[in-house]
Write a structure and sequence with these properties.
The chain has 557 residues and is of the alpha/beta class. Helices cover 40% and strands 15% of the residues. It folds into 2 domains: 4-225 and 523-555, Rossmann fold, CATH 3.40.50.360; 273-512, 3-Layer(aba) Sandwich (Rossmann fold). It has helices at residues 20-37, 82-93, 110-118, 120-123, 146-159, 197-224, 226-231, 252-260, 263-269, 301-319, 374-385, 402-414, 416-420, 442-455, 482-509, 511-516, 537-545, 548-555, and strands at residues 4-12, 43-51, 96-100, 132-139, 163-164, 171-174, 273-275, 286-293, 325-332, 388-396, 399-400, 428-435, 459-460, 467-470. The strands form 2 sheets. Strands 7, 8, 9, 10, 11, 12, 13 and 14 form an 8-stranded mixed sheet that branches. Strands 1, 2, 3, 4, 5 and 6 form a 6-stranded parallel sheet that branches.
């Protein structure tokens, strides 16, 4: 079988060439390269670093003519700078990205946002749809705004259709004390990120995850053939002009069902398996998609949108049943017996009470001590078996509901052994947030839900942040929220597509998938090997030896 070919492009958007951000970006690229080299010749990888520091680029002029037009031949009017002539063609060809930007005023640099403003016109053509991406940043101190910066970078990636696949918010680095000089004493000759072991580890995780996702997608697309272009979403922009909207709608029978559903009907669906695949077989994998409504009240707008999302998955399954199928299940957590986390020492990030033990295996008594509530008895096995998730929550003080928070807090303990075995790694998720008015904190809530999911090593794949919706009261107002219905179909389809691609690629990779793909991102415990978090010795010696001048030449080749 011919190896698949992937290209991962690293773009450092700092103002100084050959410095810490460029170094961490290259570190992630080297990790991606190492991961693919270990796949028994099934993958040919090309990596490239571009340092923006001295590139000539023009900001978006907000002409509207190219980005908002209905015309099929629209294009950006800026055609004579580095972004137009060199970078965009490379980004179109690339299969994944590592974006680097140092922290400036708690956010990304002007170079980073200039790039993403200019990507808008090209995103509408689907050039970046579903391409995996990760963020890397550095600041002059610990807690120097790295997480905030990465959160904003994550939003920008989603806006152009990419899938951020980093764990937490991405890779954070420190260029000042304790690893480097104070800003006023920095003479430009030192790359302090070389001494930041945690930043290096996160860069390695980012590089591995973007490479793995690119490989999975490439192999799955090859297996899907023409079906991918026919049935999978090619662009995450609203259809314009005479473009067909049919794929964003449910089948007529399901639309009629959803229109007639009231609170009683929704309550009756709680715990129901809504759909089963029409055709099963060894070569036709079945993906299980679990919809969880985390509202504080049962049978409300949140539940309705989660059920509608599952119906969109069901429709997609009928259209691709020649290669696979979907089983969907709906659970309303509003009235379930779920005890809050006790914050004990059995949580999976501090097993054995924080005391080191011998051997790579986790202690036998390791895991949440709450074992007699609904979450422990019923949800745990369902989470382990599911291939993708749709979470819904009402908005409370611009954040997710009490039910959502209890659920996710407990996952840290209840899912201890699942996460430790890698059963949660890389599973796609999308989120729905319902509030009483259009400015009710839905976006803030969705961003927090995405953060919670990333911490559990899931991959939030929502476009842009998820599905914001209007609702509240006895009646189900979401039925009349066209945007929410539209986005819920989008994002449910995305969960279905990515989960199926994972299954198809896993079948083809067989033992390589089990042996080489990351099963758990959290740091190894006990005597477990850290080998996978490090570069090959030759690459590491090269990275350690790089001077700023040498690094700037790599990024300007």
């Amino acid at each position: 079988m011919e190896p698949v070919k992937i290209k991962i492009l690293g773009i450092s958007c700092g103002h100084r060439k050959g410095r810490n951000t460029a170094w961490m970006t290259l570190c992630a690229l080297k990790a991606a390269e190492k991961a693919c080299r270990r796949m028994d010749g099934m993958v040919d990888i090309e990596i490239e670093l571009i340092d923006f520091a001295e590139r000539k680029m023009k900001p978006c002029i907000d002409c509207v003519a190219s980005c908002e037009t209905d015309a099929d031949d629209y294009e950006c009017l800026i055609k004579d700078d580095y972004i137009a002539t060199e970078l965009i063609p490379r980004m179109i060809e690339a299969d994944g990205f590592v974006f680097g930007a140092p922290v400036f005023t708690g956010s990304y640099t002007s170079k980073f946002i200039t790039l993403f403003e200019r990507l808008r016109a090209h995103a509408k053509r689907g050039y970046f749809t579903n391409k995996p991406a990760v963020g890397v940043t550095t600041a002059t101190m610990l807690l120097g705004g790295q997480e905030t910066c990465l959160g904003f970078m994550d939003i920008c990636m989603r806006a152009v259709g990419m899938i951020p696949v980093h764990w937490l918010n991405g890779a954070t680095g420190v260029s000042g004390p304790p690893w480097g000089p104070l800003p006023g004493a920095d003479d430009g000759t030192e790359i302090a990120a070389k001494n930041d072991r945690y930043g290096q580890w996160l860069s390695t995780v980012c590089g591995r995850r973007v490479a793995e996702m690119a490989v999975i997608q490439k192999i799955a697309k090859r297996r899907l053939g023409g079906l991918y272009d026919k049935e999978f979403i090619q662009t995450y922009r609203k259809p314009q002009g005479d473009a067909d909207w049919e794929w964003t709608e449910l089948d007529k029978s399901d639309e009629k069902l959803m229109a007639g559903l009231d609170r009683g009907g929704l309550e009756a669906l709680d715990g129901a398996v809504l759909s089963q695949p029409g055709v099963k077989g060894i070569k036709k994998p079945t993906c299980k998609i679990l919809g969880l409504s985390c509202d504080n009240v049962k049978g409300r707008d949140t539940s309705w949108l989660v059920v509608r999302s599952l119906k969109a998955v069901e429709k997609f399954g009928r259209r691709i049943e020649s290669v696979g199928g979907f089983e969907t299940e709906f659970i309303d957590l509003a009235d379930k017996n779920m005890r809050p986390c006790l914050n004990c020492d059995k949580r999976y990030e501090i097993p054995n009470g924080g005391i080191r033990w011998e051997g790579p295996e986790y202690p036998k008594d390791f895991g949440c001590i709450i074992k007699n509530d609904y979450l422990a008895k019923e949800i745990l096995p369902k989470i382990a078996e599911a291939d993708g998730f749709i979470f819904g929550s009402s908005v409370s003080a611009q954040n997710p509901s009490y039910t959502f928070r209890v659920f996710h807090e407990r996952l840290g303990g209840v899912l201890s052994k699942i996460v430790a075995k890698g059963s949660a790694a890389r599973k796609p998720t999308t989120n729905i947030a319902v509030a009483y008015d259009s400015n009710g904190g839905q976006e803030s809530c969705l961003n927090m839900m995405n953060t919670c999911n990333r911490w559990l090593e899931l991959i939030p794949i929502s476009w842009p942040q998820g599905t914001p919706a209007l609702g509240g009261g006895e009646n189900i107002l979401a039925k009349d929220d066209e945007k929410a219905c539209f986005l819920s179909s989008y994002n449910a389809r995305r969960v279905a597509e990515i989960s199926l691609m994972f299954k198809l690629a896993e079948q083809e990779l067989a033992g390589i998938f089990e042996r080489e793909f990351l099963k758990i991102v959290h740091p190894p415990h006990g005597d477990a090997s850290w080998e996978w978090t490090k570069l090959e010795k030759e690459d590491w010696d090269y990275m350690k030896s790089l001077t700023p001048d040498e690094l700037s030449k790599v990024g300007n080749a």
